[in-house]
Write a structure and sequence with these properties.
This protein is an alpha/beta fold. The protein has helices at residues 21-36, 49-60, 71-75, 92-102, 113-127, 145-156, 174-182, and strands at residues 8-12, 40-43, 65-70, 85-89, 105-108, 135-138, 169-171. The chain has one domain (8-182): Rossmann fold, CATH 3.40.50.450. It is 41% helix and 16% strand. A seven-stranded parallel beta sheet has the order 4-3-2-1-5-6-7, sandwiched between helices.
Length: 193
Amino acid sequence: MPEYKLKNVCVFCASSNSVDQKYFQLAAALGEKLAEKDYTLVYGGGSIGLMGETARAVHRHDGKVIGIIPKKLFNLEVGYQESDELIVTADMRERKAEMEAQADAFITLPGGFGTLEELLEIITGKQLAYHSKPIVILDTDGFYSPLETLFEHLFETKFARETYRGLYYFADSVDDAINYLENYQPADFGRKV
């Protein structure tokens, strides 16, 4: 099987400035590692919360940032103007489609409802064979343990096939996440659209 090509990594994460400092440290560590590996950050284009912290960390370490933000949020002055490329979309749906199109892989940092919505949509797209890109859920300090428990409940109650465990990967550190991406090979989950 040919080696999986990885250049642009999409990061889903919170836009809140109110969360614990340890999550900002995690976002900064991820941004630093993406730049170190010469991966371009693709993300939601915000300047606040973990979004802004990840982008600034990439730039502090001489990496490249592609921000994708809906016009409504851009107009609220939360766009990261320092992005190497800042794409302003008509709405959230167009933003997500553009993020998916630009990305070769996805990493999910801690976040709220919007982050979960992005993650679940990208998992579902992979389940339905719309893409075969790697999806990592960065579960430092057990933030996503309840989600992993819910996913296991879906398998136990037959609402999801056992093979779908391979749609995503729960990583316990930034290094674990990057290692997964670098060793990723697309798999066939037996379902075609």
